[in-house]
Design goal:
253 residues, 12-stranded mixed sheet, outer membrane lipoprotein receptor (LolB), chain A
Length: 253
């Protein structure tokens, strides 16, 4: 008898208000709004980001491999070593409701539900700077993958806290990126809260995705993350979002 009960209205999938950027130079506000809607202009994507960080321990490189399929399915593999047989990597997978995380170096895995958002934080009556962005497909909070594909928080919490300027364009992964610089953004840890600190972000003119993130103190680059591969609307099979664990993997929770 359940098939005789009228179904409620289907959920409305958000769509991008801006399909393409104008041919002339966009304003920073137009560019940020275009980038915030980037994920709404694709049904799936593959993205690889190479991140180089300089710390007191020296230089290190991390590779982030992202696969995303709307709505809800995502996989982020983070590799901390360039050795092909290294187990220094972790995998984050979401099916839209639950998250599975696997840390290969320690053979530890966990499965949990997505964290609920604060009720009313996405209320459209709130000013733009106070609203929490609701992604179509969630990614690891606070991760580089999330910043490149869902840059609303990066723009609102970091870049706009300092003077902004469009400083040029440059090719990234065979695509044209419009580069925006934030000089001395206030959102920083005390150790790098310096007047000569700057952050540059490259936004793809065709896609709106963040393709480049460079942090500097003076002339020294302390962090450089760049997209090396980007595929828009590739065919991704559901098996890509499945994780088969061996019997010796310890489940934390």
């Amino acid at each position: 008898m359940s098939d005789l009960i009228p179904a409620g209205p289907a959920p409305i999938t958000p769509t991008a208000a801006r399909v393409v950027l104008a041919d002339d130079a966009p304003s920073i506000e137009e560019l940020f709004l275009f980038a915030r809607e980037a994920e709404l202009r694709v049904q799936s994507l593959r993205m690889t980001i190479e991140e180089r960080v300089v710390t007191a321990k020296g230089a290190a490189m991390v590779v982030h491999e992202i696969q995303l399929k709307h709505p809800g399915r995502a996989r982020v593999a983070t590799k901390h070593s360039s050795e092909p047989m290294s187990r220094d990597y972790d995998i984050w997978i979401s099916d839209g409701e639950t998250i599975t995380f696997y840390e290969a170096s320690n053979k530890i895995a966990s499965t949990r539900r997505h964290r609920a958002r604060v009720v009313g934080s996405d209320d459209p009556t709130l000013p733009a700077f106070a609203r929490q962005y609701e992604p179509l497909t969630a990614l690891p909070p606070g991760s580089l993958a999330d910043a490149f594909i869902h840059p609303h928080g990066l723009f609102r919490n970091v870049l706009v806290t300092g003077p902004l300027a469009i400083v040029g364009v440059q090719p990234v992964a065979d695509r044209e990126a419009i580069v925006v610089r934030s000089q001395h953004p206030r959102a920083a840890k005390v150790l790098v809260d310096r007047p000569d600190r700057s952050i540059e972000v490259g936004i793809g003119r065709d896609s709106g995705f963040v393709l480049l993130l460079t942090e500097r103190i003076g002339d020294t680059i302390t962090r450089h993350a760049e997209v090396t591969s980007l595929e828009l609307d590739p065919t991704i099979f559901d098996a890509a979002f499945e994780l088969k664990l061996s019997a010796d993997v310890r489940k934390v929770y």
